[in-house]
Amino acid sequence: MEASDGSDGGVRQDAPCRVLLVEDDEPLRDRFARILAGWPGGSLVAACATLADALQHLQREPIDLLITDLRLPDGHGTQAIRTLRSLNPDADAMVISVLADDRTVIDAIEAGAAGYLLKDADSIELIEAIEELRAGRSPISSSIARVIVRRLNTSAAGTPPRAPLAQALTPRETQILWGIAKGFTYAELAEQLGISRQTVPVHVKNIYRKLEANNRSEAVFEASRLGLIWL
């Protein structure tokens, strides 16, 4: 059987997922590293304690998944996320942090994070979250989801939708945007809409361009803020 290249939104199985872990707390870093070492779907490239070390690894070798804390001794995890996105737009980034205030969460999503867990995540939850992320979904802790919903409600109340943008989305793109918001994979969307799996990513790229978004979470956030979809 031919290995999937991930274009259909399913878990990419052609090679182990190359993971970069960034966590300054040594006991937590060791714990997360042990969890990742036991995950058969991935290969831990490095476990970094600083932003500088993480940036060096990002510049030196290809990374498929960045798992990062936000508050680091020499900077902020969003800097690593932005660097990853600029080097490899198809890579995934997930935050694991104790920070859960509105501004921090939104900043991380806008930087390109597609997943956000709090540090109380156990080993099963962490691996499940990674596999959800690699399958095209956006795993977030329930308290983080509340932050996003609260922020969306506030934005929707004070910001009228931009009519030209709403009109720019085709009916098919709107359907796919709804599917993205509900967490469907590309394969599931294709089956539901009766289109080819290869067509879905084309529509998704157009949606990202029109919404000026960089990832699934940002597209859903922006679409909700503009009143194009309601969660």
Outline the fold blueprint.
Blueprint: E1 17-22, H1 26-37, E2 42-48, H2 51-60, E3 65-68, E4 71-72, E5 75-76, H3 77-87, E6 92-97, H4 102-111, E7 115-118, H5 123-134, H6 142-158, H7 163-168, H8 171-181, H9 186-193, H10 199-211, H11 216-225
Parallel strand pairs: 1-2, 1-3, 3-6, 6-7
Antiparallel strand pairs: 4-5
Helix pairs in contact: 2-3, 8-10, 8-11
Question: What does this 3D model show about the protein?
Answer:
The structure is a single chain. By secondary structure, this protein is of the alpha/beta class. It folds into two domains: 17-149, Response regulator (Rossmann fold, 3-Layer(aba) Sandwich), CATH 3.40.50; 162-225, Arc Repressor Mutant, subunit A (Orthogonal Bundle). It is 52% helix and 13% strand. It has eleven helices and seven strands. The protein has helices at 26-37, 51-60, 77-87, 102-111, 123-134, 142-158, 163-168, 171-181, 186-193, 199-211, 216-225; strands at residues 17-22, 42-48, 65-68, 71-72, 75-76, 92-97, 115-118. It has a five-stranded parallel sheet with strand order 2-1-3-6-7, with helices on both faces. β4 (71-72) and β5 (75-76) form a beta hairpin. α8 packs across α10 (199-211) and α8 crosses α11.
